[in-house]
Structure formats: structure tokens, C-alpha cells
Amino acid sequence: MLYFDHCASTPPYDEVIQTLAEVMKAHYANPSSIHGAGLQADKLVERSRTVLAGATGTKPEEWLFTSGGTESNNLAVKGAAKFYRSRGNHIITTAIEHASVYDAYKQLEAEGFRVTYLPVNVTGHVDPGELQKQLSDDTILVSVMHVNNETGSVQPIAEIGRLLKDRPKTLFHVDAVQSIGKLPVDIKGWGIDLLTGSAHKLRGPKGVGFLYVREGLRLQPLQSGGSQEHALRAGTQNVPAIVAAAKAFRMTMSSAEERAEAMYALRSQLIKAIESIPELKLNGSADAMAAGAPMAPHIVNVSYPGMKPEVMVHMLEEAGIIASTKSACSSKDDKPSRVLLAMGLERAQASGGIRISFGDEHTPQDIKKLEDGLRAVVRRLKPLERG
Amino acid sequence: MRYERILVRYGDLTLKGRNRGRFERQMEQQIKRALAPFTALTYTKIYGRLYIHLHEQAYEPVAERLKDVFGIISFSPVLAAKPELEAIREKALALMQEAVKQPSTFKVSARRTWKPFPHGSQEMNHLVGSHVLRAIPDLTVDVRNPDVQLNIDIQQEAAYLYNVTVPGAGGFPFGTNGKALLLLSGGIDSPVAGYMGLRKGLELEAVHFHSYPFTSQQAKDKVIELAKRLSYYAGAPFKLHMVSFTEMQTVLAQQKQDNLIITMMRRAMLRITEQLAGKYKAGGIVTGESLGQVASQTLGSMNVIGKACTLPLIKPLIMMDKNEIIHIAEQIGTFETSILPYEDCCTLFLPKSPSTNPNLGVVEKVEASIENYDQLLADAVASTDTIVLTPDEPLNAPAGESSPEDDWF
């Protein structure tokens, strides 16, 4: 089986699985307990924080552990908007955010916030100039994802950070779930106040999210309870998963550069293959390094207009190839992709997106097999094309 | 801006005669130790000063570390230019435009060390000054009291320019004023006293009294954190001696002299520390006491407590107000740790009304009535657990050994 759904979840490193099991066996005490066993568990959590800090040039106390990317995004967006509401009522995000950001903004909108949803161009990129136009004295929060989870478009985070640099009242939240460990992320240099990551997207365990909260910032917690995670996230920490997540984080960060290079090569091979199949339409820009339209190394989104993407996905699976339709979190509803529609694609193309996402364990031979699979599926479906 | 080197000044004011050589050697060692993580650096020594050559290393992180090395009076980031007039003018202007807050007056102070250079020092002041003036409209020259002095040193291989002097931490390099033991509690004051002792060039080792299980493991960890922070300022591995005070403290608590218990505890601590000082060849004891702050820090209490030992007691904070001490604690990064709410052994068995003016005779009589008093002191000394700390050590491996847990990270 060829697994091409890394955007949904990645295979954990063997070392991560081993760490998870060992810590789970040895440190079952509650990290909030005052006895020695509890303290040891607590120290493991704190040490995990130092691992994150060390790999990102930040401070350990600036990192929180949550249950996943979705919770981190919810806490960042709602926590910041609600805590700083007295400073202003305007918040800005983009039309292509992951549902955990987009729907959080929708919820805040229903609660009375004025929300601006920035549009994107045909390659799926936000225009910082447009953001600048929308900023007002009332703007307290801006959320822009780094890498889009459906198309792989890379947003101009550094540039947006510069725009917001002289606006201390406007917090900058970046959803880096799909980018951290794959592309350089300069939290301090880019002026990021809140940053979201997820362990199972970087070959760690599920159930652990990261949230960077810049020193001095405060948030309104989402849930009531104990004072874990600097009193921002009540609930007993998942110690074994957190330690394993820190390990995955370190492993992935220390090898990010070589892996990105290898995956960019796979991506160009795959793009060439897609361009040689006339029925398929690539979504996003073909050239990953295109000026103004850079793309992530590990995601390719392609449509077969007039064909239901589920059919493609199922037929590929029969051929031993795992791919997905839009994002896993919303793949079960039947509507066209919100992200592809935002890019201005026709309904037929927007409804037909297939996401292929890979990792560094893939080889050029794997991509060749994928190409053959795509060709065979298109050949079989050709007679069934609609209008 | 790409600086070529850093000019570090020390010793201009504080150095006297024969100590100079030792001071300078220690100073250089401390600088090199502190900057050891920056592997690209090289060093050239000149009289009372040191050049740090940056090569490919960025200036800012080096400066950040240098600011906390004791004994340094000031330092300046230095630009290099080709020893040619136009090149020097260009770099001079770039340097003047770099300032965050534009100065309104300046002067040029050129020095021609390399005599074949075609323009004299005075002439260079004019040639460079006029070039800068033309380019920066609101700037004027003031030779007596300028906001900024632009220094140019013309040598054969290059001309060196700087216009910023960053104040250093001052004081003396680590260990140039002897060795002492620091009484380190988990509170706000004693880390500040340690910082000030280190700044004065004392080689410090910390002594902490714990009363486990009456006090918690977190209280110990907190002290380890504080000692780690001090090791950053020491710029050298820092020793922390953990003394078990439980036995002594519980015996003292049973003497039915509640209002004297703090006095007796402090006296016992000094006696134990003095024995440790003998063992580790330390010549003094540093404490975080501040006059009048608590019952044990009144003049009367200090008199009776101090009688328990003969070593000099050094009390850097004695005349400072609490808010001044807190201010320093915040600056040196110990405050947040100090205020963590774990009980230390001094707050344990705290009586309702501790004596502010204990009677020495009564105290001595009570102590004499404790039959195994000397043995309790000796046991406490023997119980000492020493750990060596460096600032970047992970939390779990305080003793510097690698633990099996390392594999998990």
C-alpha cells in the first residue's frame, strides 16, 4: 500500500512509538500530584517544553500542550479575541483557513465581532496589500495559516508579520500545522504571537497539539478546571504522548531541510506526471518556487472536473494507493471545497479536488506507481465523464 | 550591520599594580568561557583591553552575553574599512545612520596609528566629519560635549570605526576576590545577594538548608533553578550544597522556646556553614539579610546570630529596600522562580511572635542544654549533598550525568 495522505496524518517514527510505550509504562502518575512520581511526570512535561523551545528559538514557558491542532487553534483564536475584546471588535482571517480557525471566526462573528475574511487569488495566495487595507484601529487579531492543508499554498507570513510589527494591539496568529517541520518557521523573526502545531502531522502521536503563546500574552481559557498548562488549558496532561510528541518534534525539526529538498523533488516529478494527463487539472501553482505563489513540498491538489473525487479516491485505493478528498476534517460532507471555491475555481473543478500528500519515506518509484495509478483510473473513468 | 570585532574594556579604573596580571588572565578566561558557544570567535589581547574578532558570527547575541560578564566596564562594536579615505567616509556615515535614536551633535576622533596614511588625525576629523554632516541634515558638531563620538583608528591593515559604547556589568571577574559560601534560601533576597557577591568577584558556592519531608521536593527544585541562574552569572560551574536540616530543626522546635527558635535555627545554620567553609576553603559567608526586614534581621537579632560564627558575614543587601531588591531580582531573572509558593525551612515552625531582640545568654543556655548539639551539627554537615550546575543543563539531570530518560527526548 502506498500512503499518500500525510496531510491527514503521518506514520509515527518507530522511536516515537517506543518512547510513548516506555513513558506510558513508567510514568503513569498524574503530573499534578505532589508526590515524587507525580513530580517526575511533571518534569517530563516541562522537559518536553524545553525541546520545543530549543528547536524554535523560543522560551519553554511560551509553549502549551493541548489535545491537538483543532484545540490549539480554538484556544488561540477565541482565547485571544475574548481576552482582548476591550481593545477592539475587529478580527481578520482568510477564506482558506482550516475549519478549526474558520469556524471559530464564524462563532465569534455570531457573538458580535466584526470579521473580515481575506480573499485569495487563483493559486490560493493571500495578498498582504489587501490585509493592509482591512486593518483598522479596531483590529485585535489576525489569523493566517502558513501552509494550506488542501492545496499546499504557502502564505506570505514574514511579510504579514512585518505589516503587523508596529501594531502592538493586533495579535498575529499562525496555523502552522502543515508547515512546521517541513518549511522554515521563524516565530520570533516573523513577529508571530500565537502559533499552532500538531504532533501527528509530524510523525508524532495523535492527541497532542502545540500552542506557542508569546511571553506576556494572555488568553481566556476554553474550559474550566485545574490550573494545568499555565492555567490556560485545564485537564490532566497526556504525559506519554507529550514526551513522544516532543521527540517527534525534535527529530522532524533537525532533519527539516534535507527532507524538504527530497520532497520538492518528488513534487516536481508528480506535477510533470499530472501535466501529462490532460483530464487532470492542477490546483495551485505548478512551480513550487514561483514568485508570489510558493507551494509546500508535500501537498499536491488535483481535480478531475466532472468526476466525483470519492470515485477517484476509491478506485485509487483498489490499486493500493491512499489519497484523500479535501481535508480529512471535512471530507465527509458532499459540498465543493470552500478553499477551491475561494480560489475562484469553477464548481466542477472545486468539487473534484483530490489531495495527494507525501512524506520523506516516499521514493521516485512510489511517485511513478502513483502516476501509473492515476493514468489507469482516468482511462477507466473517461467513458463515464459527465457534461 | 556586519561588525568586524568588539572592543572590550576592563580594568581602566579598578586595577592596581601587582594584581593586574591575575585580574587580566581571569578576565580573559571568563570572557572566553561565557562566549564558548560562539565557536567562530578569536581574540587579541592588548593592554587592559581585548579585541573579539567576530568573523562570521553576528554581533547581537555575543553582545547579549557579554553584558552579563562581570569585570567588563564597557564594549563597542567595531566596523572595519579599507584604510582609504572614501571607504572610511562611507563606513563612518553608515555607522552614524545606524543609531536607533538619531543624535543631534557629534564629533569625530581620528587616530592615525599607521603613519604612511596620507591624512593626519586633525585633517581626518574634518574630512570625515564634513562628509557625515552633508548627509545627515539635522546633525551638528560639538567638540566639547557631543551626543556621539565617532572614533576612527587607522592602522595598516584596516581602519577601525565605532561610535557606540555599551556599558558592561562592571565589578570584578569571577574569583578575583576570594571564595565565600552563599546562604541560598528559596526567597527573593538571597539570589540577589549571590548575584552581587559574584559581581564583586567572589567565587561563590551556595548552601541550602532543607527540611524534607517537612519541606517539599519542589522547594529543592526551586533552589536548584535559582542556583542555575546564578551559574550563568558565575560563568563557571556552580556548586550547590544541600544540607538536611530536618533533625536539627525538629530538636530545636522541641525546646519550648518558640520565640527563640528562628534565632537558634540561624545560629545553627551559620555553624554548619562555617564547618562547610572550612572543608571547602571559603573565607566568608554571604547572606541576603536586609536590616529590619524580618525579626531575625533586626540589629539585636543579627548581633546574637552573628556571634555563632567567626567568619566575616557579607550582607550586600543590608541597607536596601525591598522594592530595590525585587527590582534587581527581576532584572537578573530570579524573581519569577523565587515567588513560587513552596515552603522553605525558615517558614516552617514559624512562631507567632519571634523575638526581635533575643537575649544571648538565654540562647546560649538553651543550646547548651541540648545534649547532642555538636553531633547534630556534624550530622548535618555529613548529610550534605553537592550538585554542580551550569545554566543550560536540562531540568532532569542536575548532577550532570546523563539519565536513561535522555533517550526519550
Automatic annotation (TrEMBL), chain A:
Residues 3-370 form the Aminotransferase class V domain. Transmembrane segments: none annotated. Keywords: Iron, Iron-sulfur, Metal-binding, Pyridoxal phosphate. Its cofactor is pyridoxal 5'-phosphate. One of its GO terms (molecular function) is metal ion binding. PROSITE patterns: AA_TRANSFER_CLASS_5 (PS00595). It comes from the Bacteria. Gene3D superfamilies: 1.10.260.50, Aspartate Aminotransferase, domain 1, Type I PLP-dependent aspartate aminotransferase-like (Major domain). It holds the Pfam family Aminotran_5. PANTHER family: CYSTEINE DESULFURASE ISCS 2-RELATED, CYSTEINE DESULFURYLASE FAMILY MEMBER. Belongs to the class-V pyridoxal-phosphate-dependent aminotransferase family. NifS/IscS subfamily. This is Cysteine desulfurase.
UniProtKB/TrEMBL annotation, chain B:
Keywords: ATP-binding, Cytoplasm, Nucleotide-binding, RNA-binding, Thiamine biosynthesis, Transferase, tRNA-binding. Pathway: Cofactor biosynthesis; thiamine diphosphate biosynthesis. One of its GO terms (cellular component) is cytosol. It is an enzyme of class 2 (transferase). Its main location: cytoplasm. Pfam families: ThiI, ThiI_fer, THUMP. GO terms for biological process: thiamine biosynthetic process; thiamine diphosphate biosynthetic process; thiazole biosynthetic process; tRNA 4-thiouridine biosynthesis. SUPFAM superfamilies: Adenine nucleotide alpha hydrolases-like (SSF52402), THUMP domain-like (SSF143437). It is found in: Cytoplasm. It catalyses: [ThiS sulfur-carrier protein]-C-terminal Gly-Gly-AMP + S-sulfanyl-L-cysteinyl-[cysteine desulfurase] + AH2 = [ThiS sulfur-carrier protein]-C-terminal-Gly-aminoethanethioate + L-cysteinyl-[cysteine desulfurase] + A + AMP + 2 H(+); [ThiI sulfur-carrier protein]-S-sulfanyl-L-cysteine + a uridine in tRNA + 2 reduced [2Fe-2S]-[ferredoxin] + ATP + H(+) = [ThiI sulfur-carrier protein]-L-cysteine + a 4-thiouridine in tRNA + 2 oxidized [2Fe-2S]-[ferredoxin] + AMP + diphosphate. It comes from the Bacteria. ATP binds at L183, L184, H208, F209, R266, G288, Q297. GO terms for molecular function: ATP binding; CCA tRNA nucleotidyltransferase activity; tRNA binding; tRNA-uracil-4 sulfurtransferase activity. Its EC number is 2.8.1.4. InterPro entries: Rossmann-like_a/b/a_fold, ThiI_AANH, ThiI_fer, ThiI_N, THUMP_dom, THUMP_ThiI, tRNA_STrfase, tRNA_sulfurtransferase_ThiI. Residues 60-165 form the THUMP domain. Belongs to the ThiI family. Catalyzes the ATP-dependent transfer of a sulfur to tRNA to produce 4-thiouridine in position 8 of tRNAs, which functions as a near-UV photosensor. Also catalyzes the transfer of sulfur to the sulfur carrier protein ThiS, forming ThiS-thiocarboxylate. This is a step in the synthesis of thiazole, in the thiamine biosynthesis pathway. The sulfur is donated as persulfide by IscS. NCBIfam families: tRNA uracil 4-sulfurtransferase ThiI (TIGR00342). This is Probable tRNA sulfurtransferase. The lineage of its organism: Bacteria, Bacillati, Bacillota, Bacilli, Bacillales.
